[in-house]
Specification:
Layout: E1 42-45, H1 51-62, E2 66-72, H2 76-91, E3 96-101, H3 106-120, E4 125-128, H4 144-165, E5 174-178, H5 182-185, H6 191-211, E6 217-221, H7 230-238, H8 262-269, E7 280-281
Parallel strand pairs: 1-2, 1-4, 2-3, 4-5, 5-6, 6-7
Length: 291
């Protein structure tokens, strides 16, 4: 585990890479064996190349699912990370295909679903995980461009991709949205990011009510601080000192490994959560939040 003394000040070029994390992140515990909870299922995971998305991908493969993962188009580090996940999955005897895409573009989301259906013939699990953040201490200096890009990446993409996927989902299929504890705690230096995370929670709740009659469950996961490339690539770019002892102010006095978040995706993707919809799971190290 990472404790508050292990992480030092550092930064990465955006969007960051798991390869350059110091210390390295853990994506799945060596003690996680899986029990075929997702056998026969096809999962589409946005941002599945790194961080929390990579952990979800690893756990889904261990549970017998076939996976499709997206990575941010135009970044070589993203492609390398995605290829690494694909190789890992194949070494485990699984099936993984990777897709470069700009999820902020509605047509690219439509085209993505067409490609995934051609490759897999179905989608049973949609994980809206891709996201971004940019710290800002003063709303008067928060540019319109940053505000719009944060919403386009975190909220609009979720709408575009879910809308494109819905006609192909059937009873028993699921949607899982990655939100954040910051949607509840709302730190002052993350106004745009926190606002999008709150929107994701409301989107999850409302859509779950809409899809109840179709037997499709919709839930969210709101992690606390997690050791992913997004931290040195955004917080670190703003100020490398922000990354030092990342998560040390949480009740557990450390951030999470991605491996500690991945099992929550398995729960919500599997029949183990058949009576859970419209809810948010909070793997956040003990932070008390409402909702």
């Amino acid at each position: 585990m990472i404790n508050k003394f292990n992480i030092h000040a550092q930064k990465q070029e955006f969007p960051g890479s798991d390869t350059d994390l110091n210390p390295p992140a853990e994506f799945i515990s060596k003690d996680y064996f899986g029990s075929k909870k997702l056998e026969g299922k096809v999962a589409l995971i946005t941002g599945g190349d790194s961080g929390i998305g990579r952990s979800a991908a690893f756990h889904f493969i261990k549970e017998g699912a076939e996976i499709a993962i997206t990575y941010m188009k135009g970044y070589e580090s993203e492609r390398i990370d995605a290829e690494w996940v694909k190789k890992w999955a194949e070494n485990e005897g699984g099936i993984c295909k990777i897709y470069p895409v700009d999820l902020r573009n509605s047509q690219e989301c439509v085209d993505l679903i067409k490609h995934v259906l051609l490759d897999f013939s179905k989608i049973n699990i949609l994980v809206n995980n891709a996201g971004t953040q940019y710290p800002n201490e003063d709303l008067s200096t928060l540019s319109d461009e940053q505000w719009l890009n944060t919403f386009a990446t975190n909220v609009h993409s979720m709408f575009y991709l879910t809308k494109a996927t819905l006609p192909h989902l059937e009873q028993g299929d699921v949607i899982i949205n990655t939100s954040s504890v910051n949607g509840y705690l709302a730190p002052g230096n993350m106004v745009d990011y926190s606002t999008t995370k709150g929107a994701q929670i409301s989107f999850t709740r409302s859509l779950s009510n809409q899809l109840l009659s179709r037997g499709i469950r919709v839930n969210a996961i709101a992690p606390g601080p997690v050791w992913t490339p997004l931290q040195p690539a955004t917080l670190g770019q703003y100020n490398p000192e922000f990354v030092e002892n990342y998560g040390g102010n949480s009740p557990m006095e450390r951030c999470a490994q991605p491996s500690e978040i991945g099992p929550s995706f398995v729960l919500l993707a599997s029949a183990d959560s058949s009576y859970i919809t419209g809810q948010t799971i909070h793997p956040n190290g003990g932070m008390m939040v409402g909702g």
